[in-house]
Amino acid sequence: MSVLDIFCVNRIFVAINLHYNYKFNFMKLVASSFCALAALFVACSTPNKSATTDYTQYVNPFIGTDFTGNTYPGAQVPFGMVQLSPDNGLPGWDRIAGYYYPDSTIAGFSHTHLSGTGAGDLYDISFMPVTLPYKEAEEPLGIHSKFSHDNESAYAGYYQVLLTDYNINVELTATERCGVQRYTFPKAESAIILNLSKAMNWDATQDSHIEVVDSVTIQGYRYSDGWARNQKIYFRTRFSRPFDKMTIDTTAIVKEGKQIGTGYIARFDYPTSEGEQITLVTAISGTSMEGAAKNLQAEAPNNDFDTYLAQAKDMWNKELAKIQIETTNEDDKVVFYTALYHSMLAPTIYNDVDGAYYGPDKQVHQADGWTNYSTFSLWDTYRAAHPLFTYTQPERTNDMIKSFLAFYEQNGRLPVWNFYGSETDMMIGYHAVPVIVDAYLKGIGDFDAEKALEACVATANLDHYRGIGLYKEKGYIPYNIKDEYNTENWSLSKTLEYTFDDFCIAEMAKKMGKEDIAKEFYTRAGYYKNVYNPATSFMQPRDDKGNFIANFKADEYTPHICESNGWQYFWSAQHDIKGLIDLVGGKERFEQKLDSMFTFHPTDKDELPIFSTGMIGQYAHGNEPSHHVSYLFNAVNQPAKTQKYVAEIMHNLYTNTPAGLCGNEDCGQMSAWYVFSAMGFYPVNPVSGMYELGTPLFPKAELHLANGNTFTVIAKGVSRENIYIQSVKLNGQPYDKSYITHEQIMSGATLELEMGSTPGTAWY
């Protein structure tokens, strides 16, 4: 046995000892750990780095579970339909994802969650193991247990907690469509409770059902209404041991004085011995109980928790290994791989193993040869998450666009913010468009480009939808006209978001030779200039007569600007930064305005809204409209300022702590910004194929591409102090651009940067 083998075995036993930090029968410990021990021993004996590195150990799912991140710590595989995670049992904005780190109670482990959205929905199919008599509080908490973070752990694909009140250890893992729970009980009269009546935050049960299939299997459904309307989740659960007794309790669900459904709660009783383990495997489906049964049989035909955990780890390691970094800073490594992990929690798979899925027309459809996806937070994720997928997930990107086109066929327009077969219409714009166009321009996939362009144009011409008709007529959306189609206002933001999407349509039409369409949408792409007020040098709301709104203050938060203020939305012409520079009077004036963005700080008396977090002056990294702004100094020959602010954001606003995200994770966008930026570049205009250089975080980063090439960034001398680029080489030759291109990345180029502690003169 080599020294390396001895070292690895020693680390394995240390890890096992730490993992089982509760009272446990030693022989059961050895048995349950043997397979993992053998697998890790083989891995440690293999010299190949990508095969031996367990990247899951660098993922801390608790990052973002405190402050405003709104993430969940539970178990999921990449883009999995199941997000099996603990719920604290209490409602509130802080508990949108079901779990809030400062809490001390757990009231169930449910199979569906949203990652950092700021909207409280899902929490479907919630199980809770207990010993009798169990602890129960008034609703909404109900049956629950205390827990301590000292007896809680998680990594990619795994979650564990000791329920203090019952001395029950809970472990969670998952497949794509199944959640796997292993409960280790004390000697007691024990029970497992399935509560389909439980409702939290925006989510409310409308109807439910539980039925017995055999001595170890149940199935049923939960229909609910929430952020997404008319959600339908079907399930089938298999227990590893027959339940001694099953008790059903039902409650009438009443709406407007009439019963609309039934809430089911089931209790499964077991006398348990010390250290006895019971495993539950639950498959979910959006189509039927039969669909759930198929998913269960295909993905989890037995009750071997360790097998499914090993599979989940393998799936995560495959994805996380696509970007390899070198650093001696363990916290930076954890923050990076956790960010990469968070970027792959959504969108989520949304079809059964046979391709069946529930569509927005409330019918069951078939995905033939492709995977249907849901949970698209497009106002956020078009900026960096989807551009990242074009490198790390090109096949999934193709399927996501096919999902958009199916949604268009079934709903008459592309999705805005959809999940579980429902359009929430949350946020604004028609940002499926840049995702489609970016993939098309990069030559990704085999989706129908003609149909894709048709869908983009049709969606952009829905005159009755959210002011689009007014936008087309006047070249902007007036702030003083509200009707049934334009109820939430946000007139300034809508105008700016539409102009970017229209630019994307024009670019796709141009590439396809559709000159008439390109001309029309290039014209519309310039409409951002119509809301620029030269008197104030800000984008400003206008009325239907063309008058700018009076007494406009750019640092105020008003109904005319979506979740931002005038400072933050001014820069939302990513497609025409040169035109924006010309509007304000040239590069010098633009630089001054950028400087003010980062130095004009709110006062102590200013009451900032919940989405204005991660503030540097008026820059709000906690919200997406600001995300590209620090890179704009490159456009005015001041790259050192980009490097300064990007480094400050990475170092101070992303940390290896539960409060380590400065704003909502928003289905991966917050983390995708970090992944790109830590590698040293960022897509200011996501469809341009150009990536502005910032400042890399690591001495070396390798992006392994689907075409077999590896794009490499080497940052010599980089450190917390050495954040400034002194010189640049590309493939060994001096390089004088402030950006790199998609073609250079895909070619497997090597970008070599000399770093220093003072601003360099790499380009200017």
Automatic annotation (TrEMBL):
<dbReference type="GO" id="GO:0016787">
    <property type="term" value="F:hydrolase activity"/>
</dbReference>
<feature type="signal peptide">
    <location>
        <begin position="1"/>
        <end position="38"/>
    </location>
</feature>
<dbReference type="InterPro" id="IPR041371">
    <property type="entry name" value="GH92_N"/>
</dbReference>
<protein>
    <submittedName>
        <fullName>GH92 family glycosyl hydrolase</fullName>
    </submittedName>
</protein>
<dbReference type="InterPro" id="IPR005887">
    <property type="entry name" value="GH92_a_mannosidase_put"/>
</dbReference>
<dbReference type="Pfam" id="PF17678">
    <property type="entry name" value="Glyco_hydro_92N"/>
</dbReference>
<keyword id="KW-0106">Calcium</keyword>
<dbReference type="InterPro" id="IPR014718">
    <property type="entry name" value="GH-type_carb-bd"/>
</dbReference>
<dbReference type="InterPro" id="IPR012939">
    <property type="entry name" value="Glyco_hydro_92"/>
</dbReference>
<dbReference type="InterPro" id="IPR050883">
    <property type="entry name" value="PNGase"/>
</dbReference>
<comment type="subunit">
    <text>Monomer.</text>
</comment>
<feature type="domain" description="Glycosyl hydrolase family 92">
    <location>
        <begin position="291"/>
        <end position="757"/>
    </location>
</feature>
<dbReference type="InterPro" id="IPR008928">
    <property type="entry name" value="6-hairpin_glycosidase_sf"/>
</dbReference>
<keyword id="KW-0732">Signal</keyword>
<feature type="domain" description="Glycosyl hydrolase family 92 N-terminal">
    <location>
        <begin position="58"/>
        <end position="285"/>
    </location>
</feature>
<keyword id="KW-0378">Hydrolase</keyword>
<dbReference type="Pfam" id="PF07971">
    <property type="entry name" value="Glyco_hydro_92"/>
</dbReference>
